[in-house]
Write a structure and sequence with these properties.
mainly alpha, 193 residues
Length: 193
C-alpha cells in the first residue's frame, strides 16, 4: 500500500506543480530550459505511475474490503467511462464545442473515470487510487476554471464536425479498451468472459 500512496503523491504532485508551485516551476524552466524541465517532469511522472501500477497490483493480491459493490455497478461504471473517453478525445481534437464549454475536458474525463471506478470497486486500494484521482481532478478543475475566467481565457470552437470527430474517436477508443485491452492490461474484463 505504501508504494501506491507514494506513487499517487509523486504522480499527482508533479501534475500539480502549476497549481501549487507555479513560481518554482517557472524558475526551474528558466534555469534548466524547457526541454530539460519536460524531460525531468516526464521521468518523475513515469516513476510515480509505475509505483501506482505496482502498488495497486500488490494491494489487489490481499485486498482490504471496505464495501462490496453490487454487480450492476459494473454496468454503470462502463456507461460512465464513455464520456470519460469522449472528453479525453476532445482534449486533443482542436476547436471542439466540448472544450469551449468545459475548458479542461481531460480533468472532467478523469472525474468520470475515477467516479465510475469508485462506484464499482470497494477496496482500500480502490478508494486511495480512484478517490485520490477524483479529489485531484475536482480541485484542479475548479482552480483552472477560476484562473481561466480571471484571465479571460476562452477556447474557441471551430465547428460541430470537430465534436463529431472527438465523439467518434472517444467511442472507438472506449470499445477497443473495454472489449480488448482492459482485461490484458488491468486484469479485469468489464463485460466478463
Amino acid at each position: 500500500m505504501l508504494a501506491l500512496i507514494l506513487g499517487l503523491l509523486i504522480f499527482l504532485g508533479v501534475h500539480s506543480t502549476r497549481l501549487f508551485a507555479a513560481d518554482w516551476r517557472t524558475a526551474q524552466v528558466e534555469r534548466r530550459g524547457l526541454g530539460a524541465w519536460k524531460g525531468l517532469y516526464s521521468v518523475v511522472a513515469l516513476v510515480g505511475l509505475l509505483l501506482i501500477i505496482w502498488g495497486y497490483g500488490q494491494a489487489r493480491l490481499a485486498p482490504t474490503w471496505l464495501w462490496v459493490s453490487p454487480v450492476w455497478t459494473r454496468h454503470l461504471a462502463a456507461l460512465l467511462t464513455i464520456p470519460a473517453f469522449i472528453l479525453l478525445a476532445a482534449t486533443y481534437v482542436p476547436g471542439t464545442h466540448i472544450k469551449a464549454r468545459v475548458g479542461h475536458p481531460m480533468l472532467l474525463g478523469v472525474k468520470f473515470w475515477a467516479l465510475a471506478h469508485l462506484i464499482a470497486n470497494g477496496t482500500l486500494a480502490d478508494l486511495l487510487l480512484f478517490g485520490g484521482f477524483l479529489a485531484w481532478a475536482v480541485a484542479l478543475y475548479v482552480v483552472l476554471r477560476r484562473r481561466d475566467r480571471l484571465a479571460g481565457v476562452s477556447y474557441p470552437a471551430v465547428g460541430a464536425s470537430r465534436d463529431g470527430i472527438a465523439i467518434v474517436i472517444g467511442l472507438v477508443a472506449w470499445v477497443v479498451f473495454a472489449l480488448w485491452l482492459h482485461g490484458p492490461l488491468i486484469g479485469v474484463r468489464p463485460f466478463g468472459g
